[in-house]
Amino acid sequence: MPDLSGIVKAYDIRGVVGEQLDAALVRDLGSAFALLIKPESDAIVIGHDMRDSSPELSAAFADGVTSQGLDVVTIGLASTDQLYFASGSLNLPGAMFTASHNPAKYNGIKLCRSGAAPVGQDSGLAEIRDTVEQGVPAFVGQRGSVTEKDVLTDYAAYLRKLVDLSGSRPLKVVVDAGNGMGGHTVPTVFAGLPIEVVPMYFELDGTFPNHEANPLDPKNIVDLQAKVREESADAGLAFDGDADRCFVVDERGEPVSPSAITALVAVRELEKEPGGTIIHNLITSKGVPEIVAEHGGKPVRTRVGHSFIKGEMAKTGAIFGGEHSAHYYFRDFWRADTGMLAALHVLAALGEQSGPLSELTAEYSRYAASGEINSTVDDQVARMMAVKDAFGARDGVEIDELDGLTVRLPGGGWFNLRPSNTEPLLRLNVEAADAEAVRALTEDVLAIVRG
Question: Is residue 41 flagged as an active site residue?
Answer without folding.
Answer: no
